[in-house]
Sequence to fold (433 residues):
Amino acid sequence: MDNPKRILLIVGGGIAAYKSLELIRLLRRQGIGVRAVMTQSAAEFVTPLSLGVMSEDHVYGDMFDLKEEREIGHIQLSRQADLIVICPATANILAKMAAGIADDLAMTILLATDKPVLAVPAMNVRMWSHRATQRNLTMLRADDVQIMDPDEGEMACGEYGPGRLPEPPAIAERICTMLAHPFNAALTAPRAPAPHPSARADRLAAQPDFAEESPRPLYGKRVLVTAGPTHEAIDPVRYITNRSSGRQGFAIAQAAAEMGAAVTLVAGPVHLVTPPGVIRIDVESAREMAAEVEKALPADIAIMVAAVADYRAADIAPQKIKKKGAPPAPLSLKENPDILAGLAQHSRRPKLLIGFAAETENIIEYAREKLAKKGCDWIIANDVSGPKETNVMGGENNAFHIITAGGTESWPESSKEMIARKLMEKIADAITG
Ligand code: C5P
Fold:
């Protein structure tokens, strides 16, 4: 699977901030994922809601609660992006960047990142031509920050000259070039007339998209997905785990996001890129996964794909266990919480609760028993027998047997991405039908 390109868009506080909504729309049409961070003053010009709707992701900023720093730190935000774009980049942001000031989330990201940075300035013509701004730009260019020249023309303040934000298609093209991502000009065709840059222009800018594009079947639905294995520590360096790669769960999360759902993906330790628009929470152990699943509620649909370790070490050794010449003490195990069964009993049980069952024999029979035992609505059974090279666990393909109260449906083997899309279509039919 090609990893989709992702940008982190820092929206500064200027009248041109409303154009960031159009920019997000165009980038997403080009297949580029966008996660937005806004400065406090940007919130005077666009709302977090509009940016969130356009990016279909959580919007980050200092004006929100501090627990974000725990859930997804500034380092993580930059790590998950291929490129950081500041649009509009105000004179203030440029000055702070040149001086290395980190006094809010956006500036901290910019100081901490090792990713390429593109600044798209927009400001009053006098501010643009001021020697301080030009000096800052020279310093930033020397620091390898790419600066997109502003357009010349009439400004929101009535003056004329350089300082206008370039049009979003031109910015999108520049971003594609920096990402080495093919740019499709046909996807930037003009739409409704540009909205007036008033303080509420973001609302106007956001609306035509939904009138223009056909509604996606899971728009407005919250989907929770678990994926990957868990690591159950034995001592500080050793753990119990399994061969799950997380690919199937990530593909399902991606398909759900593409169909318009707000997706939270609780992932065990895997080396996979977060699908665009998906909120990912990384965990290690089954107990951490259970706690994050609980926090992610409520959800309309939960798809528990993770291969959660059934057992953990009864006692985790505080230091590395050493060889002592004699046979080691037997490892005693304790049962982990069953996240799926817990959700089935939960007061906020998702409307559609789906579990997976990896089996090596009597696949359908065992899966049907599991459906009853766990109390979920569907069980998707996979045959994980066979050699490691062609095994479903860690492999590229999968075949599903979908077991419900009504019967069993078996789908032929296909790629994990294809089967994920087919599954999400079936889910959308079930939930909206
Ligand atoms: O019991 P078994 O591990 O085969 O069940 C598999 C299903 O239950 C999967 O959907 C898996 O994500 C879920 N599960 C869980 N918590 C556990 C064990 C399994 O949610 N502790």
About this structure: The CA atoms of residues 216 and 259 lie 5 Å apart. The domain at 6-212 is CATH 3.40.50.1950 (Rossmann fold). The chain is about 35% helix and 20% strand. The pocket of cytidine-5'-monophosphate is lined by residues 226, 286, 304, 306, 308, 310, 336-340, 355-357, 370 (CB under 6 Å).
